[in-house]
Amino acid sequence: MEHIELHGSISNDQLPDILHELREKLNKPRNSACLINLQQARLNLSNEELCLLVVEIKKLSHRHRKAIAAVAVDDLSFGLLRILGSRLASENFSFHVTRDCKGATEWLREQADNPQASSYMRQTELSHRQSKHYSPD
To answer: Which of 54, 65, 106, 126 lies at a CB distance of 3.0 to 4.6 Å from 87, suitable for a disulfide?
Structure first.
């Protein structure tokens, strides 16, 4: 499993470099998973920029199944990443958002152990449980 750590305000200007790094890490032999740590970062993207990001990330999974877990602590980044994840859901792509690295690592291990996991349903279920605003009522 590969890691990417981001810092500061992440805007459209930084996306080409981030996508390049993600592409390099996911294209390594025998690697299908990456953890993106945004604990020290904050996403600053418009809806249009988010849509373009979806298109670019989907290109990464054209041959083999890929799994990405993202860690975000601030509510805006967490929400934007949840939107991104719902737009990325497909047979060849799993995306999960959590607020801590331990949860992200556990989820990536589950994906490796069960490559047929329903990525979107699992992501949604776990994300709701880990959201600090979640209430079981």
So the answer is: 54
